[in-house]
């Protein structure tokens, strides 16, 4: 329980800091957009580039684990994306894509890796890193592609594909990890001074994003977007870990510590990525911002129960 609370408390505190700063008018109304652009165009690309450039590619070659974790992501994304009611069928494709992203986007780097190390030990670090990369890079890239397609599909299919390809090629959240992966595949090392610079810049991504959410929540009316929040939260905290556990323990073959790492990472609350993307594309960020807050609060209970369950099972 204490490990979960210690991991979740900084998230609550940073969101509250942004909320209080907005209420006290310490930061102007333009701060939300400015901080969001800083995260999207500077700190988050630095974080993604460094994660891929420094990745140990030999540790990423575990297809059973990738299949289990990615399978949980895909099922949860579809569940949160597909409209189930007549009211939801009127939601724009881009907004449903963001809801799908929120339903499957775990707070992997900020909460997941420290929690895995505290509960499962150093052996959980490689699978935790894989889960972080799948979430922050692969899932992010797929959602960006869906949104770009939606924004350009009013043209002929060839023109649409061309526009989407150009937009993706200019997107810093895709350019950064792809460039890092190219360097890793080529066996090139980032100079230590540059790597430290990227480490410092990337370390500010999560704190700034969480403060931005607090600013946004303080400036947003209480009504609106509530019908989808519960669905995103339930998909993230219950469906994704359930599907991941089924795949990790009964479909694919992997060591127990890898299987439990997959389940624990899948059970984490929603990260800041969906909110950042909603702001970047000018979509309504109210549902995702509230889903992040609610899922983080609820995860103190759900993840604590999972931690207690894992503690009763052997890891070897």
From TrEMBL:
<keyword id="KW-0472">Membrane</keyword>
<feature type="transmembrane region" description="Helical">
    <location>
        <begin position="34"/>
        <end position="53"/>
    </location>
</feature>
<feature type="transmembrane region" description="Helical">
    <location>
        <begin position="200"/>
        <end position="221"/>
    </location>
</feature>
<keyword id="KW-0812">Transmembrane</keyword>
<feature type="transmembrane region" description="Helical">
    <location>
        <begin position="168"/>
        <end position="188"/>
    </location>
</feature>
<feature type="transmembrane region" description="Helical">
    <location>
        <begin position="6"/>
        <end position="22"/>
    </location>
</feature>
<keyword id="KW-1003">Cell membrane</keyword>
<feature type="transmembrane region" description="Helical">
    <location>
        <begin position="290"/>
        <end position="310"/>
    </location>
</feature>
<dbReference type="Pfam" id="PF03547">
    <property type="entry name" value="Mem_trans"/>
</dbReference>
<keyword id="KW-1133">Transmembrane helix</keyword>
<feature type="transmembrane region" description="Helical">
    <location>
        <begin position="233"/>
        <end position="252"/>
    </location>
</feature>
<dbReference type="GO" id="GO:0055085">
    <property type="term" value="P:transmembrane transport"/>
</dbReference>
<feature type="transmembrane region" description="Helical">
    <location>
        <begin position="65"/>
        <end position="84"/>
    </location>
</feature>
<dbReference type="GO" id="GO:0016020">
    <property type="term" value="C:membrane"/>
</dbReference>
<feature type="transmembrane region" description="Helical">
    <location>
        <begin position="128"/>
        <end position="147"/>
    </location>
</feature>
<feature type="transmembrane region" description="Helical">
    <location>
        <begin position="258"/>
        <end position="278"/>
    </location>
</feature>
<dbReference type="InterPro" id="IPR004776">
    <property type="entry name" value="Mem_transp_PIN-like"/>
</dbReference>
<keyword id="KW-0813">Transport</keyword>
<protein>
    <submittedName>
        <fullName>Transporter</fullName>
    </submittedName>
</protein>
<feature type="transmembrane region" description="Helical">
    <location>
        <begin position="104"/>
        <end position="122"/>
    </location>
</feature>
């Amino acid at each position: 329980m204490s490990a979960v609370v210690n991991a979740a408390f900084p998230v609550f505190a940073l969101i509250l800091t942004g909320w209080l700063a907005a209420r006290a008018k310490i930061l102007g109304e333009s701060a939300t957009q400015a901080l969001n652009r800083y995260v999207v165009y500077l700190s988050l690309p630095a974080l993604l580039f460094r994660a891929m450039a420094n990745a140990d590619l030999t540790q990423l070659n575990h297809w059973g684990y990738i299949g289990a974790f990615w399978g949980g992501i895909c099922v949860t994304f579809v569940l949160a994306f597909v409209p189930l009611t007549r009211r939801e069928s009127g939601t724009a494709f881009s907004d449903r894509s963001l809801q799908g992203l929120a339903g499957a986007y775990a707070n992997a780097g900020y909460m997941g890796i420290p929690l895995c190390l505290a509960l499962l030990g150093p052996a959980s670090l490689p699978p935790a890193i894989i889960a972080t990369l799948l979430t922050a890079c692969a899932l992010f890239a797929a959602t960006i592609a869906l949104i770009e397609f939606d924004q350009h599909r009013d043209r002929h299919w060839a023109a649409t594909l061309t526009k989407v390809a150009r937009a993706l090629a200019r997107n810093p959240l895709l350019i950064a990890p792809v460039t890092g992966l190219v360097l890793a595949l080529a066996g090139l090392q980032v100079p230590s001074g540059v790597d430290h610079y990227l480490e410092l810049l990337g370390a500010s991504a999560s704190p700034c994003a969480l403060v931005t959410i607090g600013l946004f929540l303080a400036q947003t009316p209480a009504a609106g977007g509530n019908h989808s929040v519960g669905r995103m939260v339930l998909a993230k905290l219950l469906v994704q870990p359930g599907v991941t556990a089924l795949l990790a323990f009964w479909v694919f073959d992997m060591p127990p510590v890898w299987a439990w790492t997959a389940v624990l990472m899948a059970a984490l609350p929603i990260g800041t990525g969906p909110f950042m993307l909603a702001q970047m594309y000018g979509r309504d960020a109210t549902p995702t911002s509230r889903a992040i807050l609610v899922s983080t609060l609820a995860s103190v209970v759900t993840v604590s129960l999972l931690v207690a369950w894992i503690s009763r099972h052997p890891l070897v």
